[in-house]
């Protein structure tokens, strides 16, 4: 039997694309070699419509949030779990310049929707700073691990998931048919994250992979329920666990944790908390970033039934539902892909 799609990779990109196919009544199988250190398995899961350095809007964020909300609402058709928490991010404004800048941008028509019009306090004796926070609206966190694991279980239960390394040499492509071992499909899509650097079909993509490290800590006395951004993000996970991260490193592209990464995060924690904490985990992963900081979607230049969804960089959580919708509209409704993100720019 011929199916509609073979999907390579089940990170946040492959998961969102597969769910978009379910919404459109298309059949698929996912081939994914499970990797507990993949970017999606490591991700802090924060989604945020603002660039917190400049207080400007993220590229195309209104459309991204629209598709994000539809995605998490529609997921309820296959899962009773809660994946997304819309509880805001408290941006710590270190000095009067940042505070004034926030207040001025929060009255700007372009950004006001996403920024509190006043500065907030957080009354928590465990924090060194309790005043001068700007609240980012329509932001929060997705439990990406839960989402991936839950969707994986669903796919396994309906025989749509093969846990193996994809072997490029076993793939045969012609215009109407994709054959891979015993599988026949109309189309194939690669959602491989940074491992796509080894993909022979999309070798033109100019990746700039970015390593990120994070800590998971336990602090019995902190009792904080808000996401805070100071130098790094600080995220309550429940039951007195918190994650903090993530660092940026463009030179060391391994998923080994480093002393330097740990020290940067510990320095932030020590300047930020005045209660004891214990480090539980230290993790590292590689973000699939592209040289021009834009994602990459579209079809292969020669094989029109072969597609790519990659380059989610630091913002996979918000981008993945949006890009899946854009790509499916391109494939099934003949809409155009914005040239800024189209694979043809490579
Ligand atoms: C420390 C850290 C913190 C982050 N925090 C955030 C955050 O707070 N918010 C946010 O939006 N983003 C965050 N990110 C970025 C986010 O994780 C990425 O944008 C996103 O996860 C990329 O997803 P992906 O599906 O493209 O790739 P991946 O997550 O890498 O998934 C690819 C999957 O495909 C599989 N695969 C690849 N090649 C093959 C093959 N040939 N055969 C079989 N399987 C294959 C891999 O094993 C993996 O399971 C963070 C990243 C890091 C490292």
Give me some keywords for this one.
alpha+beta; seven-stranded mixed sheet; D-Amino Acid Oxidase, Chain A, domain 2; binds flavin-adenine dinucleotide; eight-stranded mixed sheet; FAD/NAD(P)-binding domain; 346 residues; globular
Strand element count = 20
Total helix count?
A: 7
Helix content: 10-25%
CATH superfamily of the domain at 2-44 and 144-207 and 294-345: FAD/NAD(P)-binding domain
Assign the CATH class of the domain at 2-44 and 144-207 and 294-345.
Alpha Beta
Question: How would you describe this protein?
Answer:
The protein is an alpha+beta fold and 346 residues long. The model has no long low-confidence stretch (mean pLDDT 96). The chain has helices at residues 12-23, 39-42, 61-74, 96-105, 144-157, 259-272, 316-333, and strands spanning 2-8, 28-31, 46-47, 50-51, 56-57, 84-85, 89-92, 133-136, 140-142, 161-162, 171-174, 177-180, 183-190, 210-218, 227-229, 233-238, 241-245, 278-287, 296-299, 306-310. The longest helix has 18 residues, at 316-333. 25% of the residues lie in helices and 26% in strands. The strands form four sheets. Strands 1, 2, 10, 11, 12, 13, 19 and 20 form an eight-stranded mixed beta sheet that branches. Bound molecules: flavin-adenine dinucleotide (FAD).
Task: Give a quick precis of the structure.
This protein has seven helices and 20 strands.
Write the layout of secondary structure elements.
Elements: E1 2-8, H1 12-23, E2 28-31, H2 39-42, E3 46-47, E4 50-51, E5 56-57, H3 61-74, E6 84-85, E7 89-92, H4 96-105, E8 133-136, E9 140-142, H5 144-157, E10 161-162, E11 171-174, E12 177-180, E13 183-190, E14 210-218, E15 227-229, E16 233-238, E17 241-245, H6 259-272, E18 278-287, E19 296-299, E20 306-310, H7 316-333
Helix pairs in contact: 1-7, 3-7
The structure holds flavin-adenine dinucleotide.
